[in-house]
Amino acid sequence: MEIDLGNLAFDVDFHPSEQLVASGLITGDLLLYRYGDGSSPEKLLEVRAHGESCRAVRFINDGKAILTGSPDCSILATDVETGSVVARVENAHEAAVNRLVNLTESTIATGDDNGCIKVWDTRQRSCCNTFSAHEDFISDMTFASDSMKLVVTSGDGTLSVCNLRSNKVQTRSEFSEDELLSVVIMKNGRKVVCGTQSGTLLLYSWGFFKDCSDRFVDLSPSSVDALLKLDEDRIIAGTENGLIRIIQPIAEHSDHPIERLAFSHDKKFLGSISHDQTLKLWDLNDILGSEDSPSSQAAIDDSDSDEMDVDANPPDSSKGNKKKHSGKGNDVGNANNFFADLGD
Question: Are 149 and 131 in contact (CB under 8 A)?
Fold first, then answer.
């Protein structure tokens, strides 16, 4: 299923319970579509949300509104039913709003091009807290709800953990030679995986964030711009060369970079947007096929302690000791080796 958006898209998000998908365009427009099995997607809304590009899109308030962020430094809430403006916060950041993520039912976080992160109360429409954790653009954020911690990656080559209970930056990693572009939490909270500009994946053990515990090269020949957790053992990656892969390629957007990935509410569809100006909805049953068979699953040794919460006695640096696998990461053997190491 393919939707011609007409312009470059920067972000995509699915409604939490209905067959609706939203996308933000370089033109500043917000598009909303209804999709379904056996029917063509239907455009429901086209809203001029921002004067500059619409970089970040998220459904909020149980899907009643869509929140968008822009380089014009504003955040806009749009009603899903009518397309009318619910609220707009001008000058929400001092720099371009680049990322947006849901936290709790009533809070969201935004990150800007100057490395600033803000937490917002969507009901009170006010900023709860500000974290000055980075020196360059916020590339991605993911939320650990059980510990109320926000894990953030940046173009400055570092990862940070912001504690929402203490309202402090709990820790920040050492600088990597690569821009960190994407992040997911795996293994029931025990591992954090970051995608980088060079295509290397960096693995961190929860509680030991100063330096990565391992590096995996040759899994992608180009930058890993988007990561999405399929389950606790498998990641879907979108790369600059246009491939969508679970280590091995599973789908593609010609040779255009993959900008963002998202799941539908029922995980039946994988949504992807690319520089080819299309939104594609992939049926995961068709894509995965035999990937879900028991023989294709790696044996994982869950030896990490669930009690780790802060940096203490970090392991030796893995710099200069990169682990390499044969090939370019497009065979199941490499995938199994990689995910087996997630449990180390």
Answer: no
Residue carrying the six token digits 């800007």: 112
Cα 323 to Cα 120: distance, rounded to the nearest angstrom: 40
Nearest CA to 246 out of 230, 262, 232, 257 is that of: 230
Integer Cα distance of 280 and 271 in angstroms: 6
Which amino acid does the sequence have at 334?
N
Residues 6+ apart with CB under 8 A from 39: none
Tokens read off for 318: 């893995």
pLDDT at 306: 32
* Domain boundaries 1-92, corresponding CATH code: 2.40.10
Question: In whole numbers, what is the pLDDT of the chain averaged over residues?
Answer: 82
37-77 confidence digits (pLDDT tens): 878 999 999 999 999 999 999 999 999 999 999 999 999 99
**CATH architecture for the domain at 130-249:** 7 Propeller (2.130)
Tokens of 96: 């371009």
Rounded distance between C-alpha atoms, residue 72 and residue 8, angstroms: 17
Domain ranges for the chain, please list them. Answer: 1-92, 130-249, 252-285
Q: Helices marked H in the chain — which ranges? A: 284-288, 332-342
CA atoms of 69 and 28, how far apart (whole Å): 10
Contact 274, 258 (CB under 8 A): yes
Residue 124 binned pLDDT confidence (cut-offs 50, 70, 90): confident
Write a three-state SS string for 190-255. Answer: CEEEEEECCCCEEEEECCECCCCCEEEECCCCCCEEEEEEEECCEEEEEECCCEEEECEEEEECCC
